[in-house]
Amino acid sequence: MSDTGLVLKDVYRVFPGNVTAVSDVNLEIKNGEYVVFLGPSGCGKTTTLRMIGGHDDPSSGTITIDGELLNGVTPAKRPITTVFQHYALFPHKSVLQNVAFGLKMQGMDKAERETQAKAAIELVGLTAMMDRKPRELSGGQQQRVALGRVLVTRPKAILLDEPLGGLDRLLQLKMRVELRALQRELGITFIHVTHNQEEALSMADRIVVMGDAIVQQVGTPEKLARQPRNEFVATFMGDNNVLKGTIASASGGVIVIDTPYGKVEVEGTGNVGDESSMAIRASAVKVSTDAVPAINGIKVRLDFAEYLGDSVKLHMDLDGKPFMAKVHEERYAEIRAYEGKDITASWTREDGHLLEQ
Ligand SMILES: Nc1ncnc2c1ncn2[C@@H]1O[C@H](COP(=O)(O)OP(=O)(O)O)[C@@H](O)[C@H]1O
Ligand SMILES: [Mg+2]
Question: Of 35, 77, 216, 322, which has the most beta carbons under 10 Å away?
Answer without folding.
Answer: 35
